[in-house]
Amino acid sequence: MTDRPLTPAAKRVLEVASDLFYNRGIGGVGMELIAAEAGVTKKTVYDRFGSKEALVLAYLRGRDERWRGYLTGRLEQVGGPRERILATFDALGDWLRTESARGCSMVNALAELPDQAHPGHQAAADQKAWIRELYAGLAAEAGVEDPGKLADQLLIIHEGAVVAFSVANKADAAATARETAEILLAR
User: Fold this and answer.
1) What's the CA angle centered on 66, arms 63 and 70, to 5 degrees?
2) Least C-beta-crowded within 10 Å: which of 58, 155, 171, 184?
3) Any idea where the HTH tetR-type domain is (predicted)?
4) How far are the Cα atoms of 15, 40, 54, 109, 125 from residue 8, in angstroms, in the given order?
5) How buried is residue 66: exposed, middle or buried, by Cβ count under 10 Å (0-12/13-18/19+)?
6) Which fold does the domain 1-50 belong to in CATH?
């Protein structure tokens, strides 16, 4: 895929592919299905994206961009670093209810793309590294003695909430994660 703006057909392909990849799984969706659902030829899909690998990467980057924008937008509305740490869990709960009923697209992608050389695997891993660094930065701003350790703990709580929500059907998983983060911050 190039960095040029997407044509209307390419936007439709990406929207359809994103929906299919998220709801049916990356491995369960072929280029023929994407083309048919988008109302274009398979040639159009390949002309614009080059490969399924590139289309998967575009899908994951799009989801990541939306999540980062959503989360940072929510954090801009909150005061100090401790409050922003807790607000990440509020935002996560809202995101899970509205955008991620099937769980985290990045975790799902990592499960389907175990080859670390796959660009999609790297995009998903980068997203997890970003959230960990966000926590580390907020922990440092809050004056925590070991911001890296707290960042690791918060990341584990965050990811655990995502899995509990989608796999164990715990609708309040993000709220429970927030309560756990409050305990860590009170130490």
Assistant:
1) 140
2) 171
3) 7-67
4) 11, 11, 18, 26, 30
5) middle
6) Arc Repressor Mutant, subunit A (1.10.10)
SS3 label, residue 180: helix
- CATH 3.40.50.720, applies to 63-186: no
4: pLDDT strictly greater than 80: no
Task: Tell me the pLDDT tens digit for each residue of 82-125.
Answer: 999 999 999 999 999 999 888 899 999 999 999 999 999 999 99
The pLDDT value given to residue 126: 97
Q: What is the pLDDT of residues 43-85, one digit of tens each?
A: 999 999 999 999 999 999 999 999 999 999 999 999 999 999 9
> Structural domain boundaries of the chain?
1-50, 63-186
User: Which of 29, 28, 34, 33 has the alpha carbon at shortest distance from 10?
Assistant: 34
Tell me the pLDDT tens digit for each residue of 14-25: 999 999 999 999
Write the CB contacts of 63 (distance below 8 Å, at least 6 apart in sequence).
Answer: 18, 22, 105, 106
